[in-house]
Design goal:
This protein is of the alpha+beta class. The chain is built from 46 helices and 18 strands.
């Protein structure tokens, strides 16, 4: 808090208070931006603040003229009652800036941790409460704990955790919580986590939390940028950022360590049965992280609503329980002694019978028990004397009939309320289980203040609702949140309203929510807004907010959550008019297809086909061309020839495009993927180069970035490895930051290409240590996203590096991990390491064949490689043409070592001929080196000399670090056979130099150093 001359500035709550002589505080109306200017001046009191400094601090990255400051300073002077001629607070220095001249003192800020409503005394829950307290004791000792609290609706989960959390602030333990919300909100990635962090930022230690977000969790800071302070937002812009779900999981765990550095921290996640998939992954990651952080996570869920998130929640809890990574508290119904304690019954026969009746009717459910007693009390069948319940009539005469559902009982309770109170509750039910007075007031037909008064009256008797927490509106106004005592109460209130009235209420609530959230926070509120407008039958608006939610899921790389959002959007799209519906369905199809393609899900083929048909019917050639490109990619996993035909279709469709950049993008993409799928083609390469100019010169930087990401693949297979890396690194940043909201850019596939291309390029560059680090980082990302195809492909690429470094046992281990030897060993690979597509199975087979040839099974390995070559030639799939270089080199080498010179020459010539059709220097040089050794074995030294001379020319022209040492070693051997000791010594020196460079690129002590040294020998 900052105080100065009758005013108090509260930065955490964004409020300015006027302090009277009697010490009473009154809020001062001031706009949000004027408040930011005042805060900056106060925090730098006594110093002249230039116009430029203010603009940079508060409008960083936005083009704003200095004159805009005058209006905000005038607003501040009006709020403070300051006189520009005789200033007491702000002094103006013409053309230079402003100085805050009042004396400023800093007061200790009160802790505004979460506080819970005082819970009633807990009945029958001593044991679960003890489990929670014991878990907290362990957490305080640096043994992090996760405790799941679950049971049926109304069983008392909330009462238990609120009782436990009530006294945490007195135990040097901080607390924050987030809740999962039924409906669309349940699909937003990390929804309750974002809410919990938002509350921490608004709390007493908000600055510390914001500092931690910037330094250790920038991915999370980007998600919360809208509520960061201006200073922290400016710092955030300087932080390099590529968001990925695996990064967010790790960063969150690091963030918890900072938050719990000084005192233990409890994170409460409520109603996990409505959770998004990403939050479940986060809990799993935290549970498996080995650390001594002083954190306790409590998660509540309704065990009768497992299906809300399918098997995911059940699987998570079962796995963590199996590995003893969590505790579980299953709340069951109250027992007879508990009910007796609840009604304060004595030990007489009659009161025992009364307790048994209540137990029978309520099944021990505390919510049902309380509702039944209220109903009996209202009908004067029972009475309550200071908490002690007793029957007013003989039990035999209590003939009330408990309805089949609790709704009738709740309806009776609601019906006893006055009309205004019923309208308030009904309007609140349209918002959700938790609500503030401002949002539903218009739907109830009352002012927000009157709405609050009704809620406070209900809370005093804890009738249907209770006080929850406080929240802050955009303008800085603090409001009370209220919560229904149980979601069943809300359901009854919803069901008693007619569909027309309910739709009107949702429309009014949606409009109020739009006013309540500034633009930078609309993404976090998008699910809630989508639900309200959809329930109001404003389908287009509902879809608009769902699209914003989809962008959020994309930025967080939450594939499952993105698909769940698309399912919701598909439902709403059917309500649109014909023309509008088809355009929306096309957009949703492209989004869905991009996710399937990124995961190499076989549904991608059908989805892209549907998109192409719809785009053709709507006469949208650009969308149709993109669909053909996507369809070709999906088909290439099993049939390269068919895939190429669709790429040709895309190229033809591009001729209908009049915009040069878009036309260049499709033509370039078609040519690139035809090369990538079918092999090098000089004419197609020329098409790529020609379209680079209009692609780069276009106005849409994101189209340029996407085109260049694809072009990097051409660089990779034409020996421009460094250019490939630079192109990927530069353009991926642009796509990640800006293209998540554009379905035509498959951001997931771009990530896939980058995280496979980087380690591959470093391998070919001979920077093997760097490649190993890239392999590890990429695997962490793919595992975090459960992207099975990418994991398997990555493992085979890692095996390729081991192959070139001579670690054949490691290659065999990879093949075993991927299930190649399961018929012999019975070992089943893990789900994420099970190859399914043809190309990944072939890559694994290739690795296994090479490993066998070097591990005392030369003949068996040769047969594996020969059979694989026949398959690749008969039915080629994506990149088979490239991997045939690897196969034929190792096969010819194995045949040469076996003494089968004729067969070795056959495969050597095949590779030599195949390599001549490319400009890939590494494999052209490797082919000549291999064929030279075969000629040397045949004593055809003249042919050998021509071949090795050609190989030397190639590596000197462009460089091929992975091939150079082999070429020089073979050149030295040939020179010795020719009796040329001078050139032999020269090439031996170069061989050692080139090989040593590869050896030194590996991490010190890595096993590849030993295997590669053995291979060199």
């Amino acid at each position: 808090m900052k105080e100065f001359r009758s005013f108090r500035l509260d930065p955490a709550n964004h409020r300015l208070w006027r302090i009277s002589d009697e010490g009473e505080s009154a809020p001062v109306a001031i706009t949000a931006k004027a408040f930011d200017v005042l805060r900056y001046l106060v925090e730098h009191a006594g110093r002249l603040i230039s116009h430029e400094e203010l603009l940079e601090a508060l409008w960083s990255g936005v083009a704003v003229q200095p004159e805009v400051l005058k209006g905000h300073v005038l607003a501040i002077r009006n709020a403070l009652g300051d006189d520009v001629q005789r200033p007491r607070y702000i002094e103006t220095h013409r053309r230079r800036g402003y100085r805050f001249i009042a004396d400023v003192t800093t007061t200790q800020k009160t802790d505004n941790r979460l506080t819970h409503v005082a819970a009633p005394s807990l009945i029958g829950r001593a044991m679960p409460l003890g489990i929670l307290r014991e878990a907290l004791t362990h957490a305080r000792k640096g043994q992090p704990k996760i405790v799941f609290v679950h049971g049926e609706a109304g069983i008392g989960k909330t009462t238990l955790v609120e009782t436990f959390c009530r006294d945490l602030s007195n135990q040097h333990t901080s607390l924050s919580f987030g809740r999962c919300i039924e409906g669309f909100s349940g699909a937003e990635p990390f929804y309750p986590i974002i809410e919990a962090l938002s509350r921490l930022i608004k709390g007493a230690n908000g600055n510390k939390v914001q500092d931690a977000l910037i330094t250790v969790a920038p991915s999370w800071a980007y998600q919360l940028a809208g509520i960061l302070s201006r200073e922290h937002r400016a710092l955030l812009q300087k932080v390099a950022h590529i968001s990925a779900r695996s990064r967010m999981l790790g960063e969150f765990c690091d963030l918890l360590e900072v938050i719990a550095e000084d005192e233990a921290f409890v994170l409460l996640l409520e109603d996990l049965h409505w959770s998004d998939f990403s939050t479940l992954d986060l809990i799993s990651a935290f549970a498996r992280r080995k650390s001594s952080v002083k954190v306790m996570v409590i998660a509540t869920y309704r065990s009768d609503e497992w299906a809300a998130r399918g098997p995911a929640l059940k699987q998570l809890v079962n796995e963590l329980m199996l590995h003893r990574l969590c505790d579980s508290i299953h709340l069951t119904g109250l027992e007879q002694r508990d009910v007796a304690e609840y009604v304060q019954a004595d030990d007489s026969d009659e009161e025992r019978s009364f307790v048994q009746l209540l137990l029978h009717r309520s099944s021990g459910n505390p919510l049902f028990l309380g509702t039944i007693l209220d109903h009996l009390h209202r009908t004067q069948l029972v009475s309550n004397d200071h908490g002690r319940w007793k029957n007013n009539v003989p039990l035999a005469k209590i003939h009330f009939e408990i309805p089949e559902t609790i709704s009738h009982v709740v309806e009776t309770k609601i019906g006893a309320l006055d009309d205004e109170t019923q309208r308030v509750l009904e309007a609140a039910s349209a918002v959700g289980n938790i609500f503030n007075p401002v949002v539903p007031a218009a739907a109830a037909g009352v002012s927000a203040r009157r709405f609050e008064e009704v809620c406070e009256t209900l809370c005093r008797t804890r009738t249907l609702i209770h006080r929850h927490n406080v929240d802050k509106l955009e303008g800085g106004e603090v409001v009370r949140l209220y919560r229904f005592n149980h979601s069943l109460l809300r359901e009854v209130l919803l069901n008693r309203q007619g569909p027309l009235r309910l739709a009107q209420s949702h429309a009014l609530i949606g409009k109020e929510l739009e006013r309540s959230y500034p633009s930078e926070l609309s993404a976090h509120a998008s699910f809630e807004l989508a639900e309200q407008f959809s329930n109001a039958h404003e389908w287009s608006k509902g879809l608009t907010y769902l699209k914003i939610a989809l962008q959020t899921a994309k930025r967080r790389f939450a594939h499952q959550d993105a698909l769940a959002i698309l399912d919701k959007a598909d439902e709403i799209a059917t309500r649109l008019s014909d023309g509008e519906r088809e355009l929306m369905q096309m957009t949703l199809l492209e989004d869905r297809a991009s996710i399937y393609a990124a995961n190499h899900d076989m549904r991608a083929q059908q989805t892209f086909s549907g998109l192409a048909e719809l785009a053709e019917r709507l006469r949208l050639p650009d969308v149709q061309a993109r669909a053909e490109l996507g369809l070709a990619f999906a088909l290439s996993w099993r049939d390269a020839a068919t895939a190429v035909s669709h790429l040709e279709n895309a190229a033809r469709l591009s001729d209908e495009q009049t915009e040069p950049q878009l036309k260049a993008r499709i033509k370039s993409s078609s040519a690139i993927w035809r090369i990538w799928i079918g092999g090098w083609d000089p004419e197609l390469a020329k098409v790529c180069e020609e379209n680079l100019i209009p692609l780069r010169n276009g106005l849409d930087r994101q189209i340029t970035a996407w085109g260049l990401i694809e072009y990097s693949m051409i660089c990779l297979i034409s020996s421009r490895y460094r250019e490939c890396l630079e192109t990927v690194d530069t353009n991926l940043q642009i796509l990640v930051r800006h293209a998540a909201d554009r379905p035509e850019f498959n951001i997931f596939r771009a990530i896939w290409m980058a995280h496979l291309g980087r380690p591959w390029a470093y391998t070919l560059l001979g920077e093997w240590g760097h490649a190993l680090r890239e392999f590890d980082a990429s695997e962490a990302l793919f595992v975090g996203n459960a992207n099975r195809y990418s994991i398997c492909t990555l493992e085979t690429l890692r095996g390729f590096l081991y192959m070139m470094a001579g670690d054949f046992q490691a290659i065999k281990d990879i093949c075993g991990k991927l299930g190649f030897y399961q018929d012999k060993t019975g070992h089943q690979p893990a789900a994420l390491y099970t190859p399914m597509l043809t190309n990944e199975i072939r890559h694994c087979t290739l690795l296994a064949g090479v490993a066998e040839t070097r591990l005392e099974n030369l003949d068996g390995g040769i047969e594996i490689l020969k059979k694989l070559e026949r398959e690749m030639l008969e039915k080629p799939v994506i990149t088979d043409w490239y991997w045939l270089f690897v196969l034929e080199w190792w096969l010819a080498d194995a045949l040469l070592r076996s003494g089968d010179i004729v067969q070795a020459r056959l495969y050597g010539d095949r590779m030599l001929d195949r390599s001549e059709r490319t400009i890939e220097i590494t494999w052209r040089a490797m082919a000549r080196e291999l064929r030279c050794r075969i000629a040397m074995t045949e004593n055809d030294l003249e042919r050998a000399a021509l071949l090795i001379h050609d190989a030397l020319r190639l590596i000197e022209m462009m460089g091929a670090p992975m091939a150079e040492w082999r070429v020089h070693r073979t050149a030295a051997q040939l020179s010795r056979m020719q009796g040329d000791s001078t050139h032999a010594a020269l090439h031996e020196q170069l061989f050692n130099k080139k090989a040593q460079r590869l050896l030194e690129s590996l991490p010190a002590g890595h096993r590849l150093q030993e295997t590669f040294a053995h291979l060199m020998a």
